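As promised in the previous annual report, we have extended the structural survey to additional targets. Below is the entry for Putative nuclease HARBI1.
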Amino acid sequence: MESVEDMPELLFVEHFRLNKSTFRRLCNDLRVHTSLRGSKEIPLKIKVLTALNFLLATGSYKRIVGVSQNLTQRTTSRCVRQVVDALNHPTLMSKLIQFPQTVQERSLIKEEFQRKYNLPGVIGCSDCTHIAIVKPAEEEHAFYNRKGYHSLNVQMVCDHNLKIMNINAKFGGATHDSHI
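The corresponding structure token record, generated without further manual editing, is:
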């Protein structure tokens, strides 16, 4: 099995949707600012890679990449939950996800959208995605989506560099994107 350190940068980005230096910074932030820890069996970096691969790359338990050490679905689910809980820590949320607050920040983003994509006046791109969840015990109908499974319908807004600036994960999968 190829180690993360030996994996070519392009392959790493393809599997995990971020580069190695950003990944190292994320792991360090999680270690410093949250209670997320690795274990002898599953190091912190494997937990984070498993969650990134599931949440950002595949959305499926069936294709968890080799660096995840072929974890079971139950273990994968536990890793994803632990990492998501850690990412929701207020310190990390305020550090990692920030909508541009000043006129200057918004102007810079508008200029970059215009320069890179010839899109004038844009400060963010918005889309929703379904994140699969275990069937909830309460209000199950609010989470059953049109695709036939239980989910959260999560809206994200990103800038010209695909940096996430805002996330709204408050709605069940039955909620239409236009409502969010």
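The CA atoms of residues 79 and 88 lie 14 Å apart. The chain has a mean pLDDT of 85. These points will be discussed at the next consortium meeting with the crystallography subgroup.
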